[in-house]
Task: inverse folding
């Protein structure tokens, strides 16, 4: 079977500036892949994070240099394919994810089955959150209005005005909040104070409250905290999970960090083994990336798959998002198509 692979850089813009504790962006450049067997076209997306790797231009260089090796990867043997991807692209998890997704998508389209079915999952998913990034307090009412239909909100903190952000949000809504600090609290005392205060604000859990390198402090915070702690920057790859026992209650799996659906499946199984609650997350991505991650959605206790609905315009159509309810289809592969 002869495969062909094409790629391009696509700029996606957000409805609002998307700000977290370490960065602020109003647009992102992602790399879109199209993998074809001559009859069917499958899709992959690389949305690289500055926290972990270089940008999309570096990914294009890797694709240009390794195209023949990529086209020789196994379509049906995902384990050997993932091993090869990690050997080819050890420093680009996002490219691993894009290629692994495209190969899985094409395989699903060839056998005529959606990936969630191939993975042994179901279409029954819990409700996903809508993310409110860090912003000027004056913008918060507008953001809350934009999120009106979503029952669960994820709030980005890690600033010197965290209390003001929560107060501004609480002036607009009493919805359940999930808080992501993105490593923003630097000391154990600061994290304890923040946690103690958020307990009174109808917060469900805390995501990555402290820098990933401070596992001892995070373990002490977990002993103190009545809120569950969920790892994000600490749960990048499958090999990270065993070291998180006794430190976190749950883990966040993101395709752009773990290297694709094959490693995502591996992390699901490891999380179940170590009794971690599972959250599936995303970067700011089009429906290509979100639809791929959603194929594992039925294995998760929590979903944060809103990267595509944060966009001013999504160039692709995939899974639906009806007020946070992710709608999987019976279409083969990921079901993605251009808008």
Result:
């Amino acid at each position: 079977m002869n495969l062909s692979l094409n790629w391009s850089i696509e700029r996606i813009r957000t409805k609002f500036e998307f700000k977290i504790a370490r960065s602020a962006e109003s647009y992102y450049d992602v790399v879109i892949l199209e993998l074809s067997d001559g009859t069917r076209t499958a899709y992959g997306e690389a949305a690289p994070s500055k926290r972990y790797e270089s940008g999309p231009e570096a990914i294009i260089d890797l694709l240009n240099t390794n195209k023949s090796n990529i086209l020789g990867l196994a379509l049906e043997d995902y384990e050997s394919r993932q091993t090869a991807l990690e050997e080819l692209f050890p420093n680009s998890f996002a490219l691993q994810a894009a290629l692994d997704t495209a190969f899985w998508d094409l395989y699903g389209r060839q056998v005529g089955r959606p990936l969630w079915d191939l993975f042994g999952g179901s279409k029954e998913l819990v409700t996903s959150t809508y993310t409110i990034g860090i912003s000027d307090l004056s913008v918060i009412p507008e953001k809350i209005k934009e999120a009106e239909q979503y029952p669960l909100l994820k709030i980005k903190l890690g600033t010197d005005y965290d209390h003001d952000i929560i107060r501004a949000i609480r002036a607009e809504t009493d919805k359940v909040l999930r808080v992501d600090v993105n490593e923003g609290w630097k000391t154990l005392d600061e994290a304890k104070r923040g946690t103690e205060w958020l307990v009174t604000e109808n917060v469900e859990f805390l995501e990555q409250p402290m820098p990933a390198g401070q596992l001892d402090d995070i373990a002490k915070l977990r002993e103190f905290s009545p809120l569950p702690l969920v790892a994000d920057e600490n749960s990048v790859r499958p090999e990270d999970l065993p070291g998180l026992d006794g430190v976190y209650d749950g883990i966040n799996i993101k395709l752009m960090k773990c290297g694709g659906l094959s490693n995502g499946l591996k992390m699901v199984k490891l999380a179940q083994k170590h009794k971690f609650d599972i959250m599936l997350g995303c970067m700011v991505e089009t429906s290509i990336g979100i639809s791929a991650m959603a194929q594992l959605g039925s294995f998760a206790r929590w979903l944060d798959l809103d990267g595509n609905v944060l966009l001013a315009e999504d160039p692709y159509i995939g899974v639906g998002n009806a007020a946070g309810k992710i709608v999987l289809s019976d279409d083969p592969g990921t079901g993605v198509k251009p808008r």
